[in-house]
Amino acid sequence: MKITVIGSHLCPDTLYSLNQLTAAGVEVSFQDNLSCHEALLNYLHIRETSDLYADIRGTDRLGVPCFKREDGSLTLDLSDILK
C-alpha cells in the first residue's frame, strides 16, 4: 500500500502521522505544502473542492495532514489508513 501524505513539515500532526505510517511499514510519498508551490496549489484545489473539507472550509483549520490512497480516495483520519 502506498499513501500520499499531504501536509507540512512544520505541522506536529503531519510529523506524527509520517512516523506512525513509517513504523507500520506503509510506503509513503510526502507532499510538503510549505516547500513546494505546486504541492500547495494541489492541496488548495482539494481543500476547496472536496466534500471531505466541507466542515473545514471557512474556519481557521487547515485540514492537514490529508491522506491520499492509491485509488485516489482521501481521508483526514490516520486510523483509516492504519487499519
Written description of the protein model:
The chain is of the alpha+beta class. The chain contains three helices and four strands. Strands 2-1-3-4 form a four-stranded mixed beta sheet. The model has no long low-confidence stretch (mean pLDDT 95).
Give a brief description.
The protein has helices spanning 12-23, 37-49, 78-82; strands at residues 2-7, 27-32, 66-68, 74-75.
List keywords for this structure.
4 strands; 3 helices; globular; alpha+beta; 4-stranded mixed beta sheet
β-strand percent reads 15-25%
CA radius of gyration is 12 Å
Main beta sheet strand tally, sense and closure: 4 strands, mixed
Q: Tell me the distance between the termini.
A: 12 Å
Average pLDDT confidence is 95
Low-confidence stretches: none
What is the strand arrangement across the widest sheet? 2-1-3-4
Number of strands: 4
Structural class: alpha+beta
Q: Please give the count of helices.
A: 3
Q: What's the order of the H and E elements?
A: EHEHEEH
Q: Roughly how much helix do the residues carry, as a percent range? A: 25-40%
C-alpha geometry = globular
